[in-house]
Amino acid sequence: MPLLINNDEVEQILTMADTLAVLEELYRDIGSGSAVYRPRTDLHTPTTTGLGPDIPGAHYLKSMDGAWPRRQVASIRLTSDVLAYPIQNGLRRRVKIPAAPGNRWLGLVLLFSTANGELLAIMNDGVLQRFRVGATNGIGAKYLARKDARTACILGSGWQAGTQLMALCAVRPLIEDIKVYSPTPGHAEEFAQEMAATLDRPVRAVPSAEEAVEGVDIAVTATNSRQPFFPADWFKPGMHLSSMQRDEATDECFRIADVVVFHTRAKEQNYTSTDLADVERRHGFEIRDHQYPRDLDWNAYPDLGELVTGKIPGRTSDSQRTLFLNSIGVGAQFAAVGHHIYTLARERGLGRELPIDWFVESVHP
């Protein structure tokens, strides 16, 4: 019978060490062509949720899928979000509004058996999503950051930032000093205290992004910015720049980097209702996940599967600038990490069983 697994149960099960191990194994299979996924699909339509004066918004239905033959699983990840696009500190940002009942969000992972097609599990995607994003950038750092890296910074202190540092410290355990900057007053200090306790090493808040980046071996960007802000003059020789999403490092950073690796060359397929045309004209931007075009040839860069399988070299000297871009998520990640969660939930008696009769049918569609 399928298991219904919530975020609280995922938190009891999932560790960063396991997520890194599972995903690195997956990327070997992605690199060989065994594991497969389709580009993400985004649908944007109007929403009736009030977002405040002069703040554009939309409903956002997102789906991605993938399969991992090694574990005989496939998955679909679905999210139904209400988005707002405010301007904060001069930059256009994308904010997910907790508009679902109880001031919450809705995101699900459906896990299927490729042996017989059955539904194995339905799980919340929040904690899984947080760990798989952090681990993806962590794997990039494992192959691209200097092995003797001792200093790091992170720009951003939101939900995703914590697992970025957890993964980074797991693959580069010599790190002994971490600086944090957030444009939101108080966030950086609070985050620094929390992560210092979690990582058992110094983490300190600093008052500016420039001070955070100065002199570090690894810089991590973990923001919701939809306009690039990390200039090339911050990107020093020997540094590894780990970008959680593509609208953070400027185009010039890609040009001066000695090694650039994308998570994937796939790009999202976007479909926006014409009912949003007036909103787009009034605010002067296109409603989609990444509104502003980049002067980058997506197909010119290798991907993480090629890096992990050794088809391309990683860092080859301590003086190189290296850049990993978590360009977009892929559904195979949810199949891999979801299978790990499902297996441990079964072993530990977690989750709630649902009748299989709710999900199967006696006719062929």
Describe this protein's structure.
By secondary structure, this protein is an alpha/beta fold. The protein has 2 domains: 3-128 and 330-358, ornithine cyclodeaminase, domain 1; 140-267 and 291-325, 3-Layer(aba) Sandwich (Rossmann fold). Helices cover 30% and strands 25% of the residues. It has 10 helices and 19 strands. It has helices at residues 7-13, 16-32, 126-144, 161-171, 187-199, 209-213, 251-256, 277-283, 304-308, 331-348; strands at 3-5, 36-37, 41-45, 57-68, 73-84, 87-88, 91-92, 95-97, 106-113, 119-124, 151-155, 177-181, 203-205, 218-221, 240-243, 259-262, 269-272, 322-325, 352-353. Strands 1, 2, 3, 4, 5, 8, 9, 10, 17 and 19 form a 10-stranded mixed β-sheet that branches. Strands 13-12-11-14-15-18-16 form a 7-stranded parallel β-sheet. A hairpin with a 5-residue loop joins β9 and β10. α2 crosses α3 (126-144), α2 crosses α10 (331-348) and α4 packs parallel to α5 (187-199). The radius of gyration is 20 Å and the shape is globular.
